[in-house]
């Protein structure tokens, strides 16, 4: 499993959580590392939260018959892609956003989380890293921490 993070400290946490490769995207080229360590084969599945200029790099990192699932576009909503690579590699590129989904779909997702995902947390097969917990009244401070990118893990707002 490969992951990217914005600091060496965050990369260390990713490795401690089970990543085989944790790449500091500020100092290392993830395309070169992924292709170099996979004997130029690439990876089967990519979860893309960046979009924008990262999409072509992810296409380059994808293996034959690979899949790229885009769930956010923090790096930009528009991208010019190399369609030749997409076709030659027989890639599947999908996108999904939760917000526009109808309530019935959201209810199904919530039920699946309850039945499938939460038991994995209970069995310690999945782990969540909590960086900080703020009372709702301190939402501004929580947001400032998130914008600073100094946290490692989730920032939780506590509603009582």
Provide the CATH superfamily of the largest domain.
NAD(P)-binding Rossmann-like Domain
User: How many individual β-strands?
Assistant: 7
By CATH, the architecture of the largest domain is named 3-Layer(aba) Sandwich
What characterizes the major β-sheet? 3 strands, parallel
Count of discrete alpha- or pi-helical segments spanning 4 or more residues: 6
Radius of gyration: 18 Å
Q: Given the C-alpha coordinates, what overall shape results?
A: globular
- Which whole number gives the mean pLDDT? 95
Helix content: 25-40%
Q: Structural class of the helices, strands and pairings? A: alpha/beta
Report how far the terminal alpha carbons are from each other: 37 Å
CATH top level class name of the largest domain: Alpha Beta
- Strand residue content: 15-25%
Strand order in space, largest sheet: 3-4-5
How many discrete domains? 2
Order of helices and strands: EHEHEHEHEHEHE
CATH fold group of the largest domain: Rossmann fold
Oligomer: single chain
Unreliable runs: none
Structure overview:
By secondary structure, the protein is of the alpha/beta class. It folds into two domains: 2-95, NAD(P)-binding Rossmann-like Domain (Rossmann fold), CATH 3.40.50.720; 103-158, no CATH class. It is built from six helices and seven strands; from the N terminus they run βαβαβαβαβαβαβ. It has a three-stranded parallel sheet, with helices on one face. A two-stranded parallel ribbon has the order 1-2. Helix 2 (30-37) runs parallel beside helix 3 (54-61). 12% of the residues are buried. This is NAD(P)H-quinone oxidoreductase.
């Amino acid at each position: 499993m490969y992951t990217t993070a914005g600091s060496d400290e965050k990369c260390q946490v990713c490795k401690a959580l089970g990543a085989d490769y944790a790449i500091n995207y500020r100092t290392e080229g993830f395309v070169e590392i992924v292709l170099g360590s996979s004997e130029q084969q690439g990876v089967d599945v990519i979860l893309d939260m960046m979009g924008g200029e990262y999409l072509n790099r992810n296409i380059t990192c994808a293996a034959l018959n690979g899949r790229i699932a885009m769930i956010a576009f923090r790096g930009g909503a528009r991208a010019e892609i190399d369609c030749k690579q997409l076709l030659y590699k027989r890639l599947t590129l999908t996108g999904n956003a939760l917000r526009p989904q109808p309530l019935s779909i959201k209810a199904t997702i919530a039920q699946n989380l309850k039945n499938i995902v939460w038991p994995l947390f209970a069995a310690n097969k999945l782990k969540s890293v909590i960086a900080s917990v703020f009372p709702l009244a301190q939402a501004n401070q929580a947001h400032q921490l998130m914008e600073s990118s100094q946290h490692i893990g989730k920032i939780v707002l506590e509603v009582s």
